[in-house]
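Quick start: read one record
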Amino acid sequence: MVTFQHPKGFLPPPIKDAEIVTDTIPGIIVGTLLVLFGAGLIHLHRTSWFHRQHDEDLSDDDYLFFSKQYRRRMQTSSLLVLIGFLIMIGDAPYMPWKSYPGLFAAYWGGILLVAFWVILSAIGDMSASRVRSTNLISRIQDQQRLLEKQLMEMKEKQKQTTDKNSTSEKEK
């Protein structure tokens, strides 16, 4: 195993001769995927927020909702990047887990707490989006009912005027 401590009087081995610690490969892969996924989400959120900031048709309520949504989603995506880096660091062969098992428990417990916070933030974002969409749908349904009522009244008026016209023509 390659460590950062070299015996005195000896040069460190060249990288091509270094042992590959296969135990760290899954941690590197998972960590890298989390970092890339989080970075992609950050880019997506920034692009979406840029377009929403320049949308002239947004009401103040919509703008407020989207700004809060942007903050929540950026926090969650940034924490995914952080978790990815922490997994890669925590799985490195030079970490002193065997010497300090309490440090091991605290480190990985901290990562689990951050992951739990990401899950709670995602659930909160889904709930906020659901409440907003439910409110918008109920407003649209109220408008639809009002328009249908107005349409029925117009049809009634049109029918009454048609009936009056037909009776007046019959009298002539």
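The helical segments are 25-53, 60-90, 101-171.
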